[in-house]
Amino acid sequence: LNDKFGRGLAVGRGFVAAGAPNDSSLSNQEGKVFVYEDLGAGWVQSATIQPAGLAPLDLYGFSVAAGTNLIAASALFDDAAGTDAGAV
């Protein structure tokens, strides 16, 4: 309900990536990124990105960047490099 869909947003060549950092589909605010492609007749969701190993409150998708065919998304509070160090 309060996924904060679109908090992180990026435009690539023919696609848009939208972060939902508060998505709780695994447990509690791990986050997710949704990818939409322009197929000419309209925009269609083509992928959902939710890396393995996300933990509660990582907020993956808080920031999103895109290149020609590349997406980078932050996990604002990922703990792999230290408490709340973050990761991309």
Summary, kept brief:
The chain is mostly beta strands and 88 residues long. It has strands at residues 9-11, 15-19, 33-38, 43-49, 60-66, 71-75.
From the alpha carbons, calculate the radius of gyration and give it in angstroms.
13 Å
Distance between the termini: 25 Å
Residues in helices, as a percent range:
under 10%
Indicate the mean pLDDT.
Answer: 94
Shape: globular
Q: Strand-and-helix sequence, N→C? A: EEEEEE
Structural class: mainly beta
Largest sheet: 4 strands, antiparallel
Number of helices: 0
* β-strand number: 6
Task: Record the strand order, biggest sheet.
Answer: 1-2-3-4
| Uncertain spans | none
Strand content: 35-45%
Can you tell me about this structure?
With 88 residues, the chain is an all-beta fold. It contains no helices and six strands. The chain has strands at residues 9-11, 15-19, 33-38, 43-49, 60-66, 71-75. Strand 1 and strand 2 form a beta hairpin. The chain is globular. The two termini are 25 Å apart.
